[in-house]
Amino acid sequence: DLFGQRQLVWGATGLAILAFLPKTVQDAAFDKAVPSPVSGKVLSRKEFDARIAKARRDGVAVTENENLSDSVGIAAPLTGGPDRVIGSVALTIPRYRYDRTKAALYAELLIRAATGLAGKGALLRTAL
């Protein structure tokens, strides 16, 4: 279901948000997690924690085939102030077009886009 609700634990858009939310929210998301809608994979706590740590460290989340088959998702968190994550900015790229050598460039572009949007603070808060 392309337009159905998704869990934050699967896909780059949700993971980029979840990585910057409080640990209590992360724990609740893990506790309610269901298998990947694409692969049926189940996350272990160790895998989940590693994904969160990597997204926080890198400033972006990168996933493959988690919410959409044959795709790569890259997302950066969108903030509405200190400690306030309100969404994410993302690229979803068909897997056959994804160039791993450009991963750092994709990440930089998304971080810049998210930072630029966050700089529109009052306008962004009005829209949300």
Kindly describe this structure.
- The chain contains 5 helices and 3 strands.
- With 128 residues, the chain is of the alpha+beta class.
- It has one domain (12-127): 2-Layer Sandwich (Beta-Lactamase), CATH 3.30.450.
- It has a 3-stranded antiparallel β-sheet.
- A hairpin with a 5-residue loop joins β2 (71-79) and β3 (85-94).
- The protein is globular, with a radius of gyration of 14 Å.
Name some characteristics of this structure.
alpha+beta; Beta-Lactamase; globular; 3 strands; 41% helix; three-stranded antiparallel β-sheet; 128 residues
Short description:
By secondary structure, the chain is an alpha+beta fold.
Which structural category fits the helices and strands? Answer: alpha+beta
Radius of gyration: 14 Å
According to CATH, the fold-level topology is Beta-Lactamase
Compute the number of strand runs. 3
Distance between the termini: 25 Å
Indicate the CATH architecture: 2-Layer Sandwich
CATH class: Alpha Beta
Query: How would a textbook summarize the main sheet?
Result: 3 strands, antiparallel
Note the run of SSEs as H and E: HHHEEEHH
What's the name of the CATH homologous superfamily? GAF domain
Q: What count of domains describes the coordinates?
A: 1
Query: What quaternary form is this?
Result: single chain
Percent in helix: 40-55%
